[in-house]
Design goal:
Layout (H helix, E strand, L loop, with lengths): L7 H13 L67 H7 L2 H31 L1
Helix pairs in contact: 1-3, 2-3
Length: 128
């Protein structure tokens, strides 16, 4: 199976920009329909498809999902977003959209910083 070959750092940065620009706000056309974080953005391999054209096993976000949750219907919603392991799914069950988006935003910032630091360290190791 082909794996998503997009750069994970760029993917996470784009998702953060999408969130910061209000990407998960209610649609003007269908304000009664809630948005699904990750699934309703370009981060999702299946975005824009009326059916799942790609299995979630090909998604870059799967690297952040524990092995026990990778076979879930929406594995990216099982990503632990904070130090206590609260998942996106658990935040969504609370029904507080603002709290959920803030948790995802904070997780994205943390992961972006971590990946940037790892890449910088590898770069400087190769320069020496």
């Amino acid at each position: 199976m082909a794996k998503d070959d997009r750069d994970i750092l760029e993917l996470l940065r784009d998702e953060l920009v999408f969130i910061e620009q209000g990407g998960y706000g209610r649609s003007v056309r269908s304000p009664w329909l809630p948005k699904s974080i990750f699934q309703d953005s370009l981060t999702c391999l299946n975005y824009g498809y009326p059916y799942r054209a790609h299995p979630c096993a090909e998604c870059r976000l799967l690297d952040f999902v524990g092995p026990q949750d990778r076979s879930q219907p929406v594995p990216c919603h099982c990503i632990p977003l904070n130090d206590v392991g609260t998942t996106l799914e658990e935040f969504e069950l609370e029904g507080n959209e603002s709290k959920t988006v803030n948790a995802v935003r904070n997780w994205l910032r943390q992961k972006i910083g971590q990946i940037e630091a790892e890449r910088s360290e590898k770069f400087w190791q190769n320069v020496d």
